[in-house]
Design brief:
By secondary structure, this protein is of the alpha+beta class. It has helices at 3-14, 20-36, 43-54, 66-73, 119-153, 217-234, and strands at residues 84-93, 97-106, 158-169, 173-184, 186-197, 260-263, 269-273, 286-290. It has a five-stranded mixed beta sheet, with helices on both faces. The chain has a three-stranded antiparallel beta sheet with strand order 6-7-8, with helices on one face. The protein is flat, with a radius of gyration of 21 Å.
Length: 301
């Protein structure tokens, strides 16, 4: 994309105005968020909901084209967001139901490959991002379809929020988190994680981080148990299902190859569990950062 086209897209973006309906919705969601502040709940998602409503005008450009989304990602106020941008937004508000859904897409910045002649890595990156984007679309489409059915049937009360967060962007890898929340009486959050090796263009699995045939399951699992016990010792409000005599069938034993994870900005492995996986629901989604010394000797360089 040449500089003139980029500048034109930026100008178009900056000229977008919020409609009266969007302003009213923004004010309503911000007030709701303020009221919820004092209640027990997911503060991250409440904050995100009000911000998403306030940014309703911003959503129009990414829905138009990838070029427009690229232009938006280069606007300084947003920082570096070229890797993941909102391509579809679904907002619904009634007395019984509300939804605020941001559907992200990953745009491969192929200049991040270490060598411009490495066409294989660029091809892999294109394929990987297309696969992840398709997976995200399927997840969000299913949630939207379920929401619409419940609205049509006027079942109960429900609140749905889908958001995303870029967890790490380095020269070597990119990590994205898809956050999904559904509330109906009580609420539940579950998340999806995507980590891409920018050197190869491929999605990283947990076993890819370790030397061949290495047992990484055991040291990671034991470290997580140690962290659980230490956290419970330091805070009586924290509770995990570990070494429990009352509910031994719920005790966390070990991770699997399918356990969610990502690499943080410091290069540490972060193991992630959804609500109810290793602790009561009130604990929410929990994460454990694995120190490199816990897996020393089996990590790939």
């Amino acid at each position: 994309m040449d500089n003139r086209k980029l500048e034109n897209l930026k100008k178009d973006y900056e000229q977008i105005k919020m409609s009266k309906e969007q302003v009213d919705l923004m004010k309503k969601n911000i007030e709701n968020a303020k009221k919820e502040k004092s209640k027990k709940g997911n503060k991250h998602l409440i904050w995100k909901t009000s911000i998403a409503a306030a940014a309703a005008a911003f959503i129009l450009i990414p829905n138009v084209s990838k070029e427009a989304a690229y232009a938006m990602s280069n606007i300084p106020v947003f920082g570096k967001l070229v890797e993941a941008v909102t391509f579809r937004n679904y907002i619904y508000e009634s007395e019984r139901h509300s939804a605020n859904i941001d559907v992200p897409e990953i745009i491969p910045d192929q200049t991040q490959t270490p060598d411009d002649t490495d066409q294989k890595a660029k091809q892999n990156l294109k394929k990987t991002t297309e696969e992840i984007n398709a997976e995200i679309k399927k997840i969000t489409d299913d949630i939207i379809a379920e929401f619409k059915e419940r609205v049509k049937d006027q079942e109960d009360y429900q609140n749905v929020v889908i958001d995303h967060e870029t967890l790490a962007t380095t020269d070597d890898y990119f990590a994205l988190k898809l956050i999904c929340y559904q509330g109906s009486g009580s609420g539940a959050e579950w998340d999806y994680y995507y980590t891409i090796d920018l050197n190869t263009g491929k999605r990283i699995s947990l076993k890819d981080l370790f030397t061949q045939d290495a047992d990484y399951i055991t040291p990671i699992s034991e470290n997580i148990k140690e962290q659980m016990k230490q956290q419970m010792k330091e805070d009586e409000n924290i509770f995990y299902w570990v070494d429990s005599e009352d509910t031994p069938e719920w005790n966390f034993e070990k991770i699997t190859d399918e356990t969610s994870f990502y690499l943080n900005k410091d290069g540490n492995i972060v193991i992630c569990f959804n609500e109810g996986d290793v602790a009561p629901m009130y604990m929410g989604c929990v994460e454990f950062t694995i120190p490199n010394e816990a897996v020393a000797g089996i990590l790939k360089n």
